[in-house]
Design goal:
Oligomer: single chain
Number of strands: 2
Structural class: mainly alpha
GO molecular function: DNA binding; DNA-binding transcription factor activity
CATH class of the largest domain: Mainly Alpha
CATH superfamily of the largest domain: GntR ligand-binding domain-like
CATH architecture of the largest domain: Up-down Bundle
Mean pLDDT: 80
Helix content: over 70%
Keywords: DNA-binding, Transcription, Transcription regulation
Pfam family, one: GntR
Protein name: FadR family transcriptional regulator
Largest sheet: 2 strands, antiparallel
Domain HTH gntR-type: 8-76
Strand content: under 5%
CATH topology of the largest domain: Four Helix Bundle (Hemerythrin (Met), subunit A)
Distance between the termini: 33 Å
Length: 207
């Protein structure tokens, strides 16, 4: 295996381990990370490789090493974290595809929820914003849809996925509002199968 590829893989695993500790264990800035020995055992790599990976993460500002104490999480914003993790994690083609598919699943679920709890005035407002040119990006449009689902957790998940996805390809511009208006029309008609078909057609246009 190419040595550079091997080192990159180690960095990816270390960053992913930190990500899991942050989001699953609720770690905050100032919390101590596992020792080099523990990380070495978890990742099944040599301690020298772990040390190199941690040094790279320290240069990125994710962590800090305190002599005689250990390695600790730095104080950084969620958005900054997304940028930093994207630099490493989104190099993996499978993860890139997973982000895209998961974001689309969330958007489809939001459409289902909007139809089940139809708020026609709010749909008309989205239509008005489209026609006035207030929604210039596709993500602007789906932000309105996901917000309208009234599921706060779903909205937060979508926002995070949007941030990751934007690191890959940016957000697609809305050049023709007609497909988006058609999707809104099927939602107002409470026609879920047709709404999902229009959604798929819309996404296929960007491929």
């Amino acid at each position: 295996m190419n040595k550079n590829i091997s080192k990159t893989k180690v960095y990816l695993e270390i960053v992913d381990q930190i990500r899991q500790m942050i989001y699953e264990d609720g770690l905050v800035s100032g919390d101590k990370l596992p020792s080099e020995r523990e990380l070495s055992e978890r990742l099944k790599v040599g301690r020298s490789s772990v040390r190199e990976g941690l040094r790279a993460l320290e240069l990125l500002g994710l962590i800090e090493t305190r002599r005689g104490e250990g390695t600790f999480l730095r104080d950084f914003t969620d958005h900054h974290l997304v940028d930093l993790l994207s630099t490493f994690i989104l190099q993996d083609d499978k993860v890139k595809n997973d982000v895209k598919i998961t974001k689309e699943l969330v958007e489809k679920d939001a459409i289902r929820l909007v139809i089940n709890n139809l708020d026609r005035p709010s749909i008309e407002l989205i239509k008005y914003k489209l026609e006035q040119g207030d929604l210039t990006l596709e993500d602007d449009f789906f932000l309105e849809i996901v917000q309208l689902s009234n599921i706060h957790l779903l909205f937060k998940i979508w926002l995070l996925l949007k941030e990751y996805a934007s690191q890959l390809n940016g957000s697609r511009e809305i050049k023709d509002i007609k497909p988006y208006l058609q999707l809104l029309h099927t939602i107002v008609e409470e026609n879920l199968p047709l709404s999902l078909q229009f959604y798929d057609d819309l996404k296929n246009m960007s491929k």
